[in-house]
Design a protein that fits this description.
- The mean pLDDT is 88.
- The protein has one domain.
- It has 90 residues and is an alpha+beta fold.
- 20% of the residues lie in helices and 48% in strands.
């Protein structure tokens, strides 16, 4: 068991909790928006691990995760994921 894995507990809208594993987080310097990429360790039909992305807003009650709002944001996040993937394959 890898004890160095970063875990995050999400509190869902219905009040239930779900533990996920953080893959990495980053911020775009031009927008100052912070994002987190995480997984529930689910796999798709091809055996690939499903990843999730959310924006992070830091408030008085701790960080809150929100949905990605625009296609432009998704496009930039996909670019980051592709870069990460290609760096891991070197």
């Amino acid at each position: 068991m890898d004890t160095n894995k970063k875990k995050l507990t999400l509190i869902l809208e219905d009040g239930t909790e779900e533990e996920v594993e953080i893959i990495f987080s980053f911020e775009f310097s031009d927008t100052k928006k912070e994002y987190v990429i995480y997984t529930k360790n689910e796999t798709d039909e091809n055996g690939n691990i499903t990843l999730y992305a959310s924006t992070v807003t830091r408030g008085e009650n701790g960080p809150t995760l929100s949905n990605i709002e625009t296609d432009e944001e998704w496009s930039r996040i996909k670019d980051v994921l592709r870069e990460l993937s290609s760096n891991n394959n070197d």
